[in-house]
Amino acid sequence: MEKLFKLKENNTTVRTEIIAGLTTFFTMAYIIFVNQTFLGEGTPVGMPNIAVMTATCLAAAFGTYLIGFLTNYPLAQAPGMGLNAVFCYTLCASMGLSWQAALSAVFIAGIFFILITVTGIRKIIVDAIPLSLKKAISAGIGLFIALIGFNNAGLLSSESGTIIGMGPLNVPTTLLALFGLALTIVLVVAKVPGALFVSIIGTSIVGAILQFGLNINMGISKPESWIPKLDFSTFGACFVGFKELFSTPILALISVMITLILVDMFDTIGTLIGAANKAGYLDEDGNLPKVEQAMLADAVATSVGAVLGTSTVTTYVESTAGISAGGKTGLTSFTTATCFLFALFLSPIVDLVPTAATAPILIIVGVMMCSALKDIDWDDLTVAIPAFITVITMPLFYSITEGLAFGFIAYVIVMIASKRIKEIHPVMYVIVFLFIIKYVLTFASFAQ
After folding, report:
1. Cα–Cα dist 418/186, whole Å
2. φ, ψ of residue 163 in degrees (nearest 5)
3. Domains of the chain: which residue ranges?
4. How far apart are CA 223 and CA 32, in angstroms?
5. What is the DSSP letter of 380?
6. CA count, 13 A, side-chain hemisphere, 290
7. CA–CA distance, 328 with 317 (Å, rounded to integer)
8. Of 64, 146, 167, 171, which is least packed with CB atoms within 10 Å of its CB?
9. Per-residue model confidence as pLDDT tens digits over 2-18
């Protein structure tokens, strides 16, 4: 363990790393079941539910093992939320692609990620982002996952006639989440070792006693043999001629491919920066060592995930839960990945950890990640405006990528207006241009 993960060098222990890995797993284990609601039976995708679960667990395990091995960072990967929605409602529902063709689109995007990663383009993009925006990204992700936590806890509702409001408190799962939140606060403030993991287990036990105490199925589920077939025939239409490139189907396809590429690339970049900032991995210039290896793991996992039969695999913001529990090395990742393999056979046990037990963890991690706000110069409007837009739009738009897009666009506008054009890295112009093209293509495809 010491030779492989350099535990002493990182001032950590096997026990701490395993607890952190378990914390990350239980915080993101919801994807095993949630992914079926986007890709499974009864959806526009229509894959067999057990097959989706099998693919989700295998892809998450592979990606998490890979990123832990290549970087020795405590990060985890799995099919991304939001990206599975694009797969379902855009590729399959709106465009009418079969799930085989949609998986092919994800596979192609993954190959593209690999190419721009090994050539160093992805690292150039990360290094081009100013430090203030990197801090804003970390805080924005904190608010984003806190919002997810409040929503998962049942504390949010739009039924009050306002855009958003407080949900009903007389729901058993909401009361359980409130108990879990109080327990988590007490444990964290008291600095109990492994506080987040202890909270998940404690809340789950209370939930089992009060709600799931009878008829618990402790059987072992057998993973279904699942080897999906990709279908690249749809993409042959992209080469039929110049005129056809501007037809509605091809325009929509190009828009979707750009969306897949931008969403995954910047979700990963945003998550890596946020998690790295929380773990203290960023150097004095705000850059992340081994960022190429981390992004390569993401790129390879995306293509492998498509072959296994799931939507785009990306680095998870829930990795910060394990980091907050003390995870500092790839042993945390290896623990999380191994849990995903066990989840293939022990899904009933995994299901005993309710969403109400993990929701408080996301809220508290959000609090911890907002500490990055103190490093932003709020008195300088050229720094404050793009930083604020980045932070606020992530939760409001329910998208890390859209928050990055609006923040980056605002940054370029502000710097030009303040006559500080020379301070803008040329890559930032390219990024902003691509985001604008994405929005234009999306608008054009809908208009037609």
Report:
1. 46
2. -60, -40
3. 2-214+232-447
4. 13
5. -
6. 18
7. 15
8. 171
9. 888 999 998 899 999 99
